[in-house]
Every structure is written in C-alpha cells, then in structure tokens.
Amino acid sequence: MVDDDRAPSPEEMLRVMEEQNAATVKMLYADTVLLYMPWGVAWLFGFTALFLHYGLDGQPYAPITQMQAVGVLMAGQVVAGAFAVFGMVRMNRLVRGGSATKGAMYGYAWFAGMFLMTVIALRLSPQLPPEESGLLWAGSSLMVVAVLHMAGGAVWSNWQMFFVGAWVAGVDALGVLLGAGWHALLTAVLLGGGFIVIGLWLRRHK
User: Fold this and answer.
1) Tens digits of per-residue pLDDT, 14-35?
2) What is the rounded CA–CA span in Å between residue 40 and residue 187?
C-alpha cells in the first residue's frame, strides 16, 4: 500500500519552489509593464503639449495655453498613477515579511516626496515667470521620480531600476539647464518614449 501522506522529498520541494519563483517573476514583470508604459504615454503626450506651448525660441508651435498643456499632462499622470497603484498592490501581495514592509515604506516615500515637492513648488512658483514656474514643477517632480527609482534599486538590489532613475535624473538635469522648451521636448522623447520602449521590451521578454 502506497502512503499518500508521505513528506515530499527535497527534490520535489525544490521543484515546487522553482515553479513558484518562476510564476512570481512572471507576475512581477507583468506589473512592471503596468508601471512603465502608462507613465510613458502620460509623459509623451503631456510634455509634447508643453513643448508645443513653449517652443524652443520662446514662440509657441501650436495654439495651446500653458494651462491646457498642464491639463493634458495631469490627466495622463492621474491615469498612470492609478495603474501604478494597481501594479504595486499586486506585487505586494506576492511577498511577505521584510519585503512587504520595504514595499510599504517605499510607497509612503513616494507620497512624502511628491507632497513635499508640491509644497515647495506652491510656495515658490508665484514668484517666478510662468515659463520658469512650469519648469520648477516639471523639474522637481522628475527629480523625485529619479531619486526614488534609484533608492528603490538600491533597496532591492535592482540595477535596472537604479539605472532608470539615473537616466531620468540626467535627462531632467539637462532639460532644466537648457530651459522649459528643451526640458519638455527631452522629457517627451527620452522619458515618455523611453518608458514606452522599456514597457514593450519587458512585455516581450517576460
């Protein structure tokens, strides 16, 4: 008579662990697509609208006001943020213990960073010309994105996440130095388009 209640062998336990790990990795990559592509679309359309308003020589390329362009950007970011929250919740369900705590603290850090950026920008932007005020909001928000991506990469030993943050920081810094029009153009193409490419690449290779 075969004992069906026997303890699994080490080989069987290892196989089950490998299967669970593979499923977890697949789910994480799927959620990573949710984190990159919506932000890429939001930045591509939003910062393109700002670029058409600012132009590169101070003359707008399209009859769009700054508030209309900001509205396009903010609407896209709200949708992207909803996708990001959904992705983070799904990823957090796959982990327990210390990893779950790190994920929760990392989420709070995003909230705190964006809240502080908003307070600083609200205080300083009325003292600046409209174009420089817009640059303050855009540059400071991308600074938070860059720093927290790099911090997340350090926390989870994820070089891909770290380099994405460094890339955002580099594009943001160059754009701020060149001015509002260039900042909007570089962000739309290199960050908006770049995040879409990253998302498509991850979907293809997950």
Assistant:
1) 565 555 444 444 444 445 666 7
2) 10
Residue with structure tokens 């799904």?
90
The angle at the Cα of 125, spanning 121 to 127, to the nearest 5 degrees, equals 140
In this structure, the chain runs to a length of 206
Do 138 and 165 meet the contact criterion of CB atoms below 8 Å apart?
no
pTM, full prediction: 0.79
Whole-number Å distance between alpha carbons of 47 and 41: 10
Q: Looking at residue 192, what DSSP letter applies?
A: I
Report the distance separating Cα 9 and Cα 29, nearest Å.
Answer: 30
Residue 128 token pair: 């600046």
d(CA 151, CA 113): 12
Q: Categorise residue 97: left if φ over 0, alpha if ψ from -120 to 50, beta otherwise.
A: left
Q: Which amino acid is at 189?
A: V
